[in-house]
Amino acid sequence: MKKKNLKSALVPLILCFSVLTMETITANGITDDKVSVQEQKIKFSDIKESAWYYDDVKYVQENGLMNGTSETEFSPTDVTTRGMIVTILWRLEGEPVEAGILFQDVKEDAYYHHAVSWASGNQIVNGYSETSFGPDDTATREQFAAIMYRYATYKEYDVSAEAFLDKYNDKEEISEYALNSLKWANANGFITGTSETTISPRDNVQRCQV
Q1: Tens of pLDDT along 8-54?
Q2: Per residue, what are the HEC states of the chain?
Q3: 142: exposed, middle or buried (C-beta count within 10 Å: 0-12, 13-18, 19+)?
Q4: What Rg do the C-alpha atoms of the chain give, in angstroms?
Q5: By CB distance 3.0 to 4.6 Å, which of 8, 85, 163, 210 could disulfide with 187?
Q6: Using one digit for the tens of pLDDT, what is the confidence trace for 70-125?
């Protein structure tokens, strides 16, 4: 089967972490209300036009992938969770209802319940164990790379590209499970270094990095 073009299809998804609606802002950061993007053209007071992520924030908000943490704030430096990551991908796929692993820490009434079930059932995410997923744990850069790599595989994109990470002094800190994922993400420019010599695999992922 011919591999689909990865950059044209996946670039808009990279680092999509956020509240996904605007009418109701909840403590967990994601709600189920759906708002017309034509009606909601919110100008976040904490997003300056000079910011390197300005166009990206505008894109994900207008396309319903990300909204604000309130009606006036985006909170670009806030972190995201594992549950938020899979919820964004799940909604992008049309919110399918599929049976997956029943993790004990993923409650049936949690906003991410169906998302985690779908993602685990399609081998997009793994748990810490057979009973623990850690949906409210802050996501790290290497965890994000691994999830996006598995999502790209699920979508049948070409994931053959690999970058040499020797220029990063902290490459030894990369977990074994995430090494190929980070090589792929770095090769495609989705996850670059936090400096010329560091890739910071275990740093938390910020919303602005979307």
Answers
A1: 554 444 444 333 333 333 334 444 444 444 444 457 899 998 999 98
A2: CCCECHHHHHHHHCCCCCCCCCCCCCCCCCCCCCCCCCCCCCCCCCCCCCCCCHHHHHHHHHCCCCCCCCCCCCCCCCECEHHHHHHHHHHHCCCCCCCCCCCCCCCCCCCCHHHHHHHHHCCCCCCCCCCCCCCCCECEHHHHHHHHHHHHHHCCECCCCCCCCCCCCCHHHCCHHHHHHHHHHHHCCCCCCCCCCCCCCCCECEHHHC
A3: buried
A4: 17
A5: 163
A6: 888 999 999 999 998 998 899 889 899 988 888 999 999 999 999 999 999 999 99
Single-letter amino acid, residue 55: D
